[in-house]
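Figure caption, in words: inputs first, then the predicted bound structure.
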Amino acid sequence: MKVKSPLEIYRLLPKTNCKECGYDTCMSLAAHIIDRSAKPEDCKPLVEDAKHDDEARQNLEKLIELTSPEIDEVIVGKDLKIGGEEVLHRHELTFFNPTALFFDVWDTMDDKEIDRRCSKVVGYRKFYVGRFLTLDGIAVRCTSGNPERFAEVAKKVAGYGSPIVLVSLNASCMRAALEAVGEHNPLIYAATLENWEEFLKLALEFKTPVVVRSQDLDALKSLAATFRSSGVKVVLDPVTEPVGEGLRETFERVIQLRRTAILGGDKEIACPLIITPIAAWKAEGDAVSRAYWETVIASLFIIKYGDAMILHSLEPYTIMPLIMLRANIYTDPRTPVQVEAGLREINSPDPDSPVFITTNFALTYYTVESDLTSGKIKGWLLVLDTEGLGVEVSVAGGQFTAEKVKELIDKTGVAEKVNHSYLVIPGLAARLQGAIEDETGWRVLVGPTDSGRIKGWLEKNWPPK
Amino acid sequence: MRLNLEEFFKLLSKYEIEEIEGLKLEGDIEIEIEEGAAIDVINEINLAMQHLMKALSMLGAAPVTPSLPSAPVPHREFRLLEEKFEPLPVKYSGTIQEVQLGAKRSEGGSRGSVVKLGGERSLPFYLFDSPQPNLPAIAIDVFDRPIPLPKAVREHYSDVMENPGEWAKKAVKLGADVVTIHLVSTDPLIDDTPPGEAAKVVEEVLQAVKVPVIVGGSGNKEKDPVVLEKAAEVAEGERLLLASATLDMDWERIGNAAKNHGHVVLSWTQMDMNNQKTLNRYLLKRLELPRESLVMDPTTAALGYGLDYAYTNMERIRIAGLKGDEDLSFPISSGTTNAWGAREAWMKDSPIEGDTSWGPRELRGPLWEITTGLTLSLAGVDLFMMMHPAAVAVMKEFMATLGGRKDRIETEDWVGVEL
Ligand code: B12
Ligand code: SF4
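Bound structure (iron/sulfur cluster present):
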């Protein structure tokens, strides 16, 4: 984004403070546009005026231009966004669109295996901080050299409804596949110095985004400039070499491209980057070593600027670290992720059910809540406002105190819902046991340090003797 | 065929395409193109468009998508725009302090090998900005008594857990550049081992291996300074890394022990850059600890359990150091073994309904340690404290690769082949 101060945005807004955008003032919307939690188009009056008023139209266009991301944002499928980044380091703002993970099938694979892999991709789930993390899409590779077969497999895969990448360097194969699934807005992989003209025509005809591929960054930039000047959305592939000096050079290319785009203002290459850790499967080694190395390459580029990726391993032991790393790197460092404080009822508790307390740090809360729910434990869960901090951190920092526990108990009226006065606190808050007993008059039981062990703990300790 | 781009005409004149045959003006915003001339004109238009877009983007404007006339596509001809990519060089004014762990006989110690940490002038592995004199080192954790460990880790050490010397030897065999001896038994709540006895274990480890040694306390705020001081005494001149001095304990005593007996201090804070700065300043300014005797540990959180905080904290510290903040330009150490605290690393499978199975934990656990370490290596860590042998091996390979210590190996392109 070219502007740094909300004032520059405010100047171009209607300045009537009509609140239609959902914010109290135009200045407030401007501030939200700056941190990208709102868009210029959210100002409905401006959008309306722009339809007939020249000045309003110019202001709107100017706003959109000024606030467009440093790195172009490209849509694949219906609404998978890749790129759109602003900064080189997450603490400078945040990273926005998590690296899109595509897993491959190829067209000489038998149909059963294709179905098996596609189901794995669309069915994958890992619960984390209140939601299930999932995978993004499927890369269909042409290994047959046969346009009909490639089209047939592309069609089959499109049936799974996930975004797709079509992989072939051969224009007639690509054309056949595009005729079959072009309307799903696949990403086409890849235009090179050899085939670019044909691929440019395909991209224009089918209106799809294109990956341009070259190890030579002059050539890559030339390809990107050529495609973009025709209005085609471009994703850059500086070619992932999987091992040795080649991998180091890949790292260098990726860093140079992103850094020069953001700090150097080179707009021609300010495009999303695609990385292909799948290349690790052409290196030496057994299946586990290759799966590990693929994960290493993927992790490296989840951290450093990979906006999309093509991977091969569908083993849960490689997928899980990757999607959790992605979740971590792409969480917004500006705000601790927190949930609302209060009282939650878990599995329809009754007056005999235990009362637990935890904090409102999202990671803590959801871990505890899902442990209780999955463990089929009936209980009352008090959620303390610790300003979004975990148990140990808030005990150490003074946001988890006996006084606040008392306030929460009083406010939620939990005492009226149960016929006992036992409160189970996290093991990591053990040192507050006495203070909470003194402050609230409840009997405090110290639970286990990991909420995953509450079930076993209850078997021994509930009901209290 | 209609085209209503006002700018179009300005553009034509700008690029000296004054006249196009077969082009007729209708009104002031629409143009009509005669059938026969269409293809040529469109090629011209396309070219002009390409130039326009380029010009716009050079001016820093957002590339607008032009509404191109839709010509019969196959007839189009395009020209490749020749471009040169000029990478943007980045230079920092600061240098990360180089710190040596271990001392050879000639240097007053008895180590067979030493390890140098730090010395960077750029972000980690940005060799194109500046050469990186030292690759990060890996230390393997050894404890002075058997401790509970996740199964995947325990199975590699169960035969040596009763004997710290043997454990240390095994660590070196498994690739450790450095060995860490954690004197956990000194904790008053565990065995309350007296400092004198604990120091004997340190001597035992120094005897058993030739690599540099890190000595860790139990984390007990009262006892650690005494224990580490004793260890510093018996290992005079060995350039041990004393782990750790923290703000809420007698850091002065630990710092002085290092200064007086020729060792290095690990300055440990809990994910707070300002606290890190404060503690480093205390050690450097108040105690006048030499700069080459300080390593810092800004705290490691596992993948999924605060790694984002750890990564960003370390990255910020490193960037501050490179930009010339002399209180933060020191090598960084990471307790990567923390990764095993994450339930995803050690639990048999997910306790959560609806999760896809997590897969075999023997394979999952080491990857948790690798991913945690690898992430932090990109933030600027110079010294990793690790445990699983496979994780150690992969991290070494990874760092040697990015550090430019590997040859080129050609591999076949994956694009059109079965795997
Ligand atoms: C991430 C982190 C931070 C982040 C916090 C982000 C956040 N939103 O919470 C930041 C950087 C802000 C931070 C700051 C500090 N931190 Co800190 N931090 C950590 C770290 C690395 C991870 C904590 C975490 O998120 N764990 C994961 C969550 C899910 O765990 P949890 O909340 O405890 O929940 C689990 C259990 O408690 C239990 N549970 C939860 N609820 C319930 C309920 C019941 C009924 C039961 C039975 C169980 C249960 O199950 C959950 C799942 O396992 C730990 C070290 C570590 N590796 O553990 C240090 C750590 C907690 N921090 C520590 C300290 C000292 C601090 C600071 C005071 C230091 C400072 N710099 O000033 C500040 C405090 C700030 C404040 N409070 O104002 C110390 C605490 C030492 C102590 N025991 O007193 C730790 C242990 C580091 C250390 N080894 O010294 N920290
Ligand atoms: S909708 Fe537009 S005019 Fe109204 S308050 Fe928001 S920014 Fe201002």
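The radius of gyration of chain A is 27 Å.
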